[in-house]
Task: structure prediction
Amino acid sequence: MQQEKFPTVIIIGAGPGGLALYHALIKNKDRKKFNVKIFERESGPKDRWQGYHIGLASRGIRSLMNCIPSSIALNIPKAIPNPIPDVEYHGISVTDHTGNLLLKPPLKQFKDVYEIVENPDHFVSLTVAYRDRLRDVLLDDVPVQWDKKCIGYEETEGGVLVNFEDGSQEFCDILVGADGVNSPVRKQKIPELQINEVGATFVNANVAVPKHLMERLIKVHGNSLVQKTLGLNGDSTLIASRLIPIEQEQDKYNSDEIYYRTTIAFFYPSELDNDETENFKVNDNDPASVIKHVKHIIQKLRPECEMTDILLELWDLAPKTTPNDPVKYPFKTYNPIQRRKVKDINPLSVNSWTSSRVTLIGDAAHAMSPLLGLGTTNAVQDANILSQALLNYTPENSISCIKEYENEMLKRASADVLNSRDVTLKQLTKVGYFGFIIRNSILKITNIIMNIRDLLANFMK
Ligand SMILES: Cc1cc2nc3c(=O)[nH]c(=O)nc-3n(C[C@H](O)[C@H](O)[C@H](O)COP(=O)(O)OP(=O)(O)OC[C@H]3O[C@@H](n4cnc5c(N)ncnc54)[C@H](O)[C@@H]3O)c2cc1C
Result:
């Protein structure tokens, strides 16, 4: 008897997007069976530091849960811990440089990720997830082929031949580039689609914040998992934390105090990197000099106040050297504290999208400014929508399945790229004394309107 030959899907990149797609295609195998292969350029799960915090909006969590089987879903709270009731407030709040509240969109609190899935219409929320643990959870049961750097492909009418740096080749019916912002698959498929620099630079660091400092921060800023402060000179800060004590690390610090996992980020106009008044040289390979640079700009741009003092203390906690303890830090490659340009890719900025056997998901198609925290959300939404479209796959209609996915993705992701860019550009604008009053008033009025709308919507339910 002749064995049935299933179509092959190759995924390049085992980030959140690629892994979510792998699970979704396998999960749906009773409805449509594919031979799915996933290739990653890293040499193994511990090759590279896998990040700290990522934002996930409720639509992203719902898509993720749609993609993964129940065995993986059971482990999701390791990566997206349940909120601590009455302690953690999911969502974002925006203040001015002194901590004066400007905007706190009314986001619904939820008790766990399952609640978001069960009540899709009533829950709009943003949470802070652990990227490193999400990667570990999503890797479970996935036969990633490591050390396989894709360098290009050859597409014919009958399929796609994928080329790897080690000289090997793989044939498939559909190729999905889930290979991040510098995607070689995108560069070949749509060379005109360029990475755009928004004009902002940011530096971020992952720190363990002692309870007494976190309490001071919450006192000045208010309590929410993502805290943003807007300066007067195009500078802004983003602080993302979970108020879950870092138990396993207590011995490293003062054992009497609790510490919290926190990401601090400072955004500023890129031209400030050419500041001639700075009397030292910033070297992006030397974290100590980058931290000094950030503190220098904060002190230069922000008036003295409790919020400024807290920011400077937070930056003092950032590690000034590369970690060298292989037990606590088992990665070959470190993610150094360095200046990074805010970049994005608007997939609709070119009109040369032609659906073919080669498509893109996640950052490969639409990297976005991190300011709204929607990058991972869109990557897993892509995985979900593409897997749904492929349920109708037949050899004759493969391109129309891809087209169906791309039509939805291009519209949704482009809107989020442009919104994130818009917010970044607004924050880059210097405000004088009157500008400061106008900006604060507009945001406060917006806040009142958003909260009244939410109250009314709840009242009408
Ligand atoms: C190591 C790492 C750490 C990160 N840390 C954070 C963080 O702390 N906070 C945050 O907000 N965002 C972080 N991000 C970005 C965030 O994960 C993405 O913006 C978002 O989740 C979109 O996911 P993605 O799957 O589309 O792309 P990515 O998460 O970028 O994943 C792409 C994957 O493709 C692989 N890849 C790239 N090129 C090739 C190639 N030629 N051949 C084979 N494989 C390839 C990469 O190694 C990576 O594993 C990080 C990304 C990476 C890669």
